[in-house]
Specification:
By secondary structure, this protein is of the alpha+beta class. The chain folds into 4 domains: 43 residues; 90 residues, no CATH class; 87 residues, Efflux pump adaptor protein, beta barrel domain (Elongation Factor Tu (Ef-tu), domain 3, Beta Barrel), CATH 2.40.30.170; 89 residues. Helix content is 44%, strand content 31%. A 6-stranded antiparallel barrel has the order 4-5-8-7-6-9. The chain starts with a helix and ends with a helix.
């Protein structure tokens, strides 16, 4: 009897379990359909739309205040354009050669002047003796006079040679370097150039580039190593042009033991005569996406659109920009990241719907 009761209870338990799984199996689809319908009823409204082919994020005024979205008008500005130009490290062999020849000519002049002074004294002595009852002959006095004329002619020739050498230096190396090379005691710059402690740079600037100022400097770098920058200081104009690059040429000096004569260099931070107009984009307005800088511009009371900008020119309060933004345009300076998130959320939603 007890065995029959246990069998009946077992059969009832089995039937209960089977009924439960049947209920779960057949009720699953209805549950999922009901759940999906509920999610659709509470779907978040899409704040992103397209207007004239431009993606627009729509945020009402109350939400802007609640989310802390603030905008600032852009200020107009002008910028003196920078120019990247080229140059080369100069060999000073010809300058040293001309200096040596010039100093030799000047030394010869001094020797001749000493000889001239002695011959003048000798002539005066002989002339006095000749006047004193012909103690010396007229011929001796005439020879002394000819020696004076010969020395004067030699001095004139040596001075002409020295001037020609100085003019040659001036035509090749400019006034400043010529003055330094013409000194008997070499200048500090010339000593450093000869010793290899400094190098002479000739740069070629475009015709619209501003004239370098005294004591000004630029940054240079070898073309083979553009990140290895060196500061170079202005010396003077260079009278000779570059055979391969047309423009205005100038001499600079740079302290370097790595640059070699003949090396090509890039010169940067050179100022142009031309200024360009644009706006200053605040640092707070810029967001980065896909490795590029963007800003959100306010296109309506409740509309914002994302625009790419360039951050090539950094200024004190942000970035100078010349492009599709103008003065008094309002850009988001707080909350731009929220707008970006909302824009991407819309893209993800559209992909899921597809």
């Amino acid at each position: 009897m007890n065995r029959k009761i246990a069998i009946i209870i077992g059969i009832q338990a089995f039937l209960i379990v089977m009924l439960f799984w049947l209920l779960v199996f057949y009720g699953k689809d209805e549950f999922e359909a009901l759940n999906q319908q509920h999610e659709e009823e509470i779907e978040t409204p899409n704040l992103v739309s397209s207007k004239d082919g431009v993606t627009v994020v729509n945020v009402n005024t109350a939400t802007q205040v609640q989310s802390g979205i603030h905008t600032s008008p852009l200020n107009a500005s002008t910028h003196q354009a920078n120019i990247s130009t080229y140059g080369s490290v100069m060999s000073i062999d010809s300058l040293i050669e001309l200096r040596t020849r010039y100093l030799t000519a000047k030394s010869e002049i001094e020797v001749l002047r000493t000889s001239l002074a002695q011959n003048k004294n000798e002539y005066a002595r002989l002339h006095a003796l000749n006047l004193d009852d012909k103690n010396v002959s007229d011929k001796v006095v005439a020879v002394a006079a000819s020696n004076i004329k010969a020395d004067e002619a030699k001095i004139a020739a040596a001075e002409s040679n020295a001037r020609n050498l100085a003019d040659s230096m001036r035509q090749q190396w400019g006034e400043s370097l010529t003055k330094q090379a013409a000194q008997l005691n070499a200048s500090e710059l010339l000593q450093n150039l000869i010793a290899g402690k400094e190098v002479l740079i000739q740069t070629t600037l475009p015709f619209d580039a501003a004239e370098p100022r005294d004591n000004s400097s630029i940054m240079i770098a070898p073309t083979a190593a553009p990140s290895h920058t060196i500061r170079a200081y202005y010396i003077s104009r260079a009278p000779m042009s570059n055979a391969t690059i047309q423009g205005k040429t100038y001499f600079y000096r740079a302290i370097s033991t790595e640059l070699r004569a003949g090396m090509q260099i890039n010169a940067i931070n050179t100022t142009s005569n031309k200024s360009v107009s644009g706006v200053i984009v605040p640092n707070d307005a810029i967001i980065w996406y896909a490795g590029k800088p963007w800003v959100y511009r306010k296109t309506g009371e409740e509309e914002f659109s994302r625009l790419p900008i360039k951050t090539d020119i950094e200024v004190e309060t942000g970035w100078f920009y010349q492009g599709n933004l103008k003065e008094k345009d309002e850009v988001v300076t707080n909350g731009a990241q929220l707008l970006l998130s909302e824009e991407f959320k819309s893209q993800i939603t559209n992909e899921n719907e597809d």
